[in-house]
Design a protein that fits this description.
The protein has 430 residues and is of the alpha/beta class. It contains 14 helices and 20 strands.
């Protein structure tokens, strides 16, 4: 019966190793051995990779009598005859052998290592596929938070100062689980699956639970459920403040402390009026690791899909993205001042419900009501609709479209009418 080779262990003490070969494959093995702080001697008939220019390489062949000097030999030469010779003589000289890409000539395999200071996680496919091992390692690296490493030092000190029978094992287990929780704040774009970034999609696969805003499209919700991710709606709507920000923060913390990968899913991009700072600050203050993933903002997606170019040479030299209200749905007027002889296009989020107030305050500030305007509702969906008119007709325009909607103000609205657009378009007579 053929005995299964073992994976190269994480040795308690460095081993004296011989690496045969100085090409690209040998380079990968050498990096692993160096990281493990092993004593490595390199020998090769020729140096094929410039990487080895910085290391002492014995150019030539190794004498048979020298084989007994090593505990580990890695043959990355590609010489089939040499590999067979080393395999047949390994017991005679007392070394463990790995012949690269020849599983039958191996006493052990290399694995893909994930290192977090004192914690090492090794992944091996038993020689079947190094690429698979590396892929699994990279995924583990994304899943595990680095915030658990301080716990390792605490437990090390505990072992030094207390006897095993005195450990509160239940408490230690609770702390271990707690340290593995991580929160991903994910921008999910305006609506559809097609607008998700690849990074967002990849992150969905490692989530245990997702907290979703109202702006998250049904397609995305369905995808998460198909991946067996628990979905919890934490949307906030005008008049329906079921989940305050404090409640959302508390829920994220609770789930992370249960050792779960938590996805905080937001429509658009979290950095654009998405309260990402408040949530990151809160979680950081409770030692919960956070990873932020950008998304496509409706402010930009909506302009392009509605056929409006927000910057046009000679017309608009920039874009200002503002919100029509502050916290607790309090309308404010500071942004309206930018409409006076402005060289910029204004994109106003969360403005649909304030159409009447915007017009009233524009009149009071002496702002021209003939400034071209467009409401784009349900951006990035089959029901997307663009209503084009002027600042003075915002209330009428808002009645012709639904929420959510973005508002675009500026001469570019009128100048972009020849652009291709998606969904329905209604142009009001001036």
């Amino acid at each position: 019966m053929h005995k299964m080779p073992f994976t190269l262990p994480i040795a308690l003490t460095p081993k004296k190793a011989l690496l045969i070969g100085a090409g690209n494959v040998a380079k990968q093995k050498h990096k692993v051995l160096q990281e493990a702080h092993w004593e490595v001697e390199i020998i090769s008939k020729e140096i094929k990779d410039s990487y080895f220019a910085d290391f002492d390489v014995n150019v030539g062949t190794i004498a048979e009598s020298d084989l007994s000097h090593f505990e580990i030999i890695i043959d990355a030469s590609g010489d089939e005859n040499l590999g067979c010779f080393l395999w047949e003589n390994r017991k005679k000289f007392g070394y463990l052998l790995n012949v690269v890409d020849s599983p039958k000539l191996c006493d052990f395999y290399f694995g893909a290592l994930v290192r977090y200071e004192e914690v090492s996680i090794l992944v091996s496919s038993n020689g079947a596929s190094p690429i698979l091992s590396q892929t699994l390692r990279d995924k583990i690296t994304r899943i595990l938070p680095r915030s658990f490493t301080p716990l390792v030092k605490t437990l090390q000190n505990l072992r030094k100062t207390q006897r095993v029978e005195n450990y509160d094992k239940k408490h230690i287990q609770t702390q271990c689980i707690k340290s593995l929780g991580k929160v991903f704040i994910i921008g999910c774009g305006p609506n559809s699956l097609e607008s998700l970034t690849l990074k967002a999609l990849e992150t969905f696969e490692i989530l245990d639970v997702a907290l979703l805003d109202n702006l998250i499209g049904k397609e995305i919700w369905n995808l998460l459920e198909s991946l067996n991710v628990e979905c919890i709606s934490v949307g906030k709507q005008k008049g329906k403040q079921n989940f305050t920000q404090d409640k959302i923060n508390a829920l994220m913390l609770k789930l992370a402390n249960e050792g779960k990968n938590v996805g905080r899913l937001k429509g658009g991009d979290p950095a654009v009026f998405g309260r990402v700072f408040e949530e990151c600050s809160f979680l950081n203050s409770h030692n919960v690791e956070v990873e932020c993933i950008s998304g496509l903002s409706s402010a930009l997606n909506g302009t392009l899909t509605s056929g409006i170019a927000p910057t046009l040479r000679g017309i608009s030299s920039g874009v200002l993205i503002v919100s029509a209200h502050l916290r607790e749905n309090i309308f404010h007027t500071e942004w309206l001042h930018w409409l006076k002889d402005s060289p910029y296009t204004l994109i106003v989020l969360m403005s649909h419900s304030f159409a009447k107030k915007i017009v009233q305050n524009a009149k009071e500030l002496g702002i021209s009501l003939e400034i071209p305007a467009a409401f784009i509702s349900k951006v990035d969906s089959k029901e997307q609709k663009t209503i084009i008119g002027t600042l003075g007709k915002l209330e009428e325009m808002s009645n012709l479209c639904d929420k959510p909607a973005i508002l675009i103000l500026g001469e570019v609205v009128k100048k972009s009418l020849e652009m291709p657009y998606a969904g329905a378009r209604i142009i009001l007579e001036s």
